[in-house]
Amino acid sequence: MGCRLKVFLTEQEKLTLEELRKAKNVPQRTKDRAQVLLLNARGLKNEQIAKGLNWAISTIRQTLHRWEKMGLAGLWDAPGRGGKRRYSESDLVYLENCLAQESETYNSKQLAKKLASERQVNLSADRLRRVLKKRERSLGSTRTQTQEQQIIS
After folding, report:
1. Vertex 64 angle, CA 62 and 70, to 5°
2. 10 to each of 17, 45, 99, 123, how far by Cα in Å?
3. Residue 118: how many CA atoms within 13 Å on its side-chain side?
4. pLDDT digits over 61-87, tens only?
5. Model-level pTM greater than 0.85?
6. Which residues of the chain have pLDDT under 70?
7. Which end of the chain is more exposed for a tag (fewer CB within 10 A), N or C?
């Protein structure tokens, strides 16, 4: 069995980690990692920390090693986590232009087929519907303002 990894924090590091734990715009995983460091610095053993947070002991050790190796930057997840988009903004603009210019109406299955055949972007009809609905919500306020400006002038 290896020796126990103990983190020694300066007062400034303790303050920074406490603030990080309480911040609202910080991911929960980052807050949890800050908590692990603070608990370790207070003298709790890795097994106690793991039990308290319902984590594996190896995850606690990994967090402590990341702190030793990378410092504060080691608390955040690496960029590029998760699935990548299968479509681009230009694909959505293309669909919106098709809908605006053509007199034919489309359902989500037809739009998905059109996108696959003309742009080689494969999205399910359900996913495409959700993406367009979300886009409509985010663009809705700007469209309303533009329409109001046209009515006024």
Report:
1. 95
2. 11, 19, 60, 51
3. 12
4. 999 999 999 999 999 988 877 777 888
5. no
6. 1-3, 140-153
7. N
